[in-house]
Every structure is written in C-alpha cells, then in structure tokens.
Amino acid sequence: MPKKQANAVDALVGNQVRLRRISLGMSQDKLAQFLGLTFQQVQKYEKGLNRIGASRLFDLARILGVGILYFYEGAIDEVSGRPLGFAEDASPPPAPAAPTQEGLQLNMAFTRISDPKLRRRILELVKGLATDSASAGM
C-alpha cells in the first residue's frame, strides 16, 4: 500500500499554521519547542509537505490559541467549488499567504469584519484598486 502524500488541504492547514504563528510573533523554533519537534518539521508542516495528524493539530490549536476549524478556513470543495463548512452563508475564504507584513495586517483586519456585505464591498474596492494600479503600471 503506497504512503499517503500531502495534498492541497495539507497545504491550506500548513499555511493557516504559518499565518497564525506569524500573527503571534512566534518563531518556527519556538513553536517547534512547544511541540517537541525540530524547526525543520514545523517548516514542512507549514509548507504542506508533511501531513499534520489529529493529535498534533489539536496541540497546534491549543498552542496557537485557535479552534480546530480555524485551520480549515478557506477550504473549497473540489466537486462543487463551494466553501466547506456548516453554514449556508459561509464567510469568504481568507487571502492566500501574505508575502508582506502589510498583506498580513490587511488579512488579519479583514477577517475581523463580521458583516459579510461590508467584506464584499471592501473586497471589490481592493480588487478595483489593484486593477487600477496594474493598468497604471505601478
């Protein structure tokens, strides 16, 4: 029987670990110490190269101060293309990994907005600004 390999959900979970760790100002080394691992293993988790087992995910949630479902925010059903979740009107998925500090701050602030209509309007504004900037050659 072939060994199971990491997939897109593993990458999503790893990215969520990375975003939360960075938002807390925690290093990979510090997280690894809390988990009793090497920082290289934390790197592999964050890149989605290695799967995170259920008990390890539970430990990560406790250490990072989030619920288990936090790690699956933004997961999309591959068949329907709809967000996975329990609510009919699921919130929009978070932005992909923010490569800059400003991107991370924007993402963190955006996810704190509880009104879905306001989030959609802000998203449209940002998309419009990004399009304008791209067409202006900025």
What report would you give on this structure?
- This protein is mainly α.
- The protein has two domains: 94 residues, lambda repressor-like DNA-binding domains (434 Repressor (Amino-terminal Domain), Orthogonal Bundle); 43 residues.
- It has six helices and no strands.
- Helix 1 crosses helix 3 and helix 2 crosses helix 3.
- The longest helix has 20 residues.
- It is globular, with a radius of gyration of 17 Å.
How is the topology of this model organized?
Blueprint: H1 8-23, H2 28-35, H3 39-47, H4 54-64, H5 101-111, H6 116-135
What does this entry show, briefly?
This protein is mainly alpha-helical and 138 residues long. It is 54% helix and 0% strand.
Question: In the CATH classification, which architecture of the largest domain applies?
Answer: Orthogonal Bundle
What portion of residues belong to β-strands? Answer: under 5%
Category from helices, strands and their pairing: mainly alpha
> Fraction of residues in helices?
40-55%
Q: Which regions contain 5 or more consecutive residues with pLDDT less than 50?
A: 86-98
What pattern of helices and strands is seen along the backbone?
A: HHHHHH
